[in-house]
Amino acid sequence: MKRIVFMGTSDFGIPTLRTFYEHHNVAGVVTRCDSPKGRGRQLQPSPIKVASQSLGLDVIEAANLTDPEFIERLKGFNADLFYVVAFRILPEEVFSLPPDGTINLHASLLPDYRGAAPINWAVINGDTETGLTTFFIEKTVDTGDIILNETVTIGPDETAGELTARMKITGANLSLKTVGLIEKGEAHGSKQPSRGNRPAPRLFKEDGLIDWTKEAKSIHNQVRGMNPAPGAYTKWRKGPLKIHRAKIVEELSTGTPGTIIEASPQEGITIQCGKGSLRIVELQPPGKKAMDSAGFVRGYRIEKGILLSE
User: Fold this and answer.
1) How far apart are CA 297 and CA 293, in angstroms?
2) 168, 236, 259, 271: which has the highest count of C-beta atoms within 10 A?
3) In which region does residue 258 sit, left (phi positive, over 0), alpha (psi from -120 to 50) or beta (all else)?
4) Is the pLDDT reported for residue 39 higher than 80?
């Protein structure tokens, strides 16, 4: 049984944290400080903090990772290893502390998709598979020696959120195997291959703006990859219209990209793309809740021929 300090922020790491709690000794947890959220800007704890407190674990909220007091607290845990899932870039004085090293679980098959949004970019790029990698943290981000990896398939209509929900469970199992190898002294890291290395930078709201001159397949992948956040959207006369789900229409169509070429109270709207067209399944008007496309047609009297991008 290993003595572990877990470091993370988002709910992606919760299954791994709970798995370690069940099978090892989680000496402590490091997460971000409470941050303002929502319209009221009330301070909210990270999902990892909430999960850690429910398990009765000692939690450190780290503001400055190089602060001497913080580093002394880490030393006080006497951990065999640190384990990182969706946290921050660690300085060398932190990741070099534990005798068994500091391990990172990353949501891609490294070296592909180094960066903050690997799952989103795999979906946006239309990949049919991705994966998870555990590796030893080094000075350069996401470049350390690989311990284990596992491939995960991506469904043709699967959103980034749905894929994330599956991958965090797979990641917990892979993490347990990784620590098992470390216990046996068999975690012999291998250098990352030179192939691949597509970037996965953080996504922003403006990345969700749909360019209807692109082909339907590309826009479909953008919608999937931006769901649930930061979200894909199109311009509309009443403001940004969020597009949550869509399907590619196989029939040939022509017209100005961004034009509604079908508006059915039963089937919803179909929009012309640069090549092909998309049937919108679920969308969200400004200030309203998400609704199906057919309800949008009925509620807003949407007609064929409207150019959304105007």
Assistant:
1) 7
2) 271
3) left
4) no
Q: Rounded distance, CA 58 to CA 3, Å?
A: 13
The predicted model scores a pTM of: 0.95
Name the DSSP class of 166. H
Task: For residue 95, report the phi and psi dihedrals to the nearest 5 degrees.
Answer: -70, -15
Closest CA to 280 of 223, 207, 213: 223
Give the H/E segment covering residue 14: helix 14-23
Where do the domains of the chain lie, and which CATH numbers do they carry?
Answer: 3-184 (3.40.50.170), 205-300 (3.10.25.10)
* Residues written for the chain: 310
Per-residue model confidence (pLDDT) at position 125: 98
Nearest residue to 62 (alpha-carbon basis) of 46, 80, 81: 46
Determine which helix (DSSP H) or strand (DSSP E) holds 7, and give its type and residue range.
strand 3-8
Instruction: Specify the pLDDT at position 310.
Output: 63
Partnered with residue 135 across adjacent β-strands are 104, 146
Nearest one of 173, 146, 1, 189 to 80, comparing CA atoms: 1
Q: Average of pLDDT values for 137-152?
A: 95
Helix (H) and strand (E) counts in the chain = 8, 15
pLDDT digits (tens, 9 = 90+) for 9-22: 999 999 999 999 99
Contact status, residue 28 vs residue 5, Cβ threshold 8 Å: yes
265 preceded by cis ω (within 30°)?
Answer: no
pLDDT at 43: 87
pLDDT, the chain, mean: 95
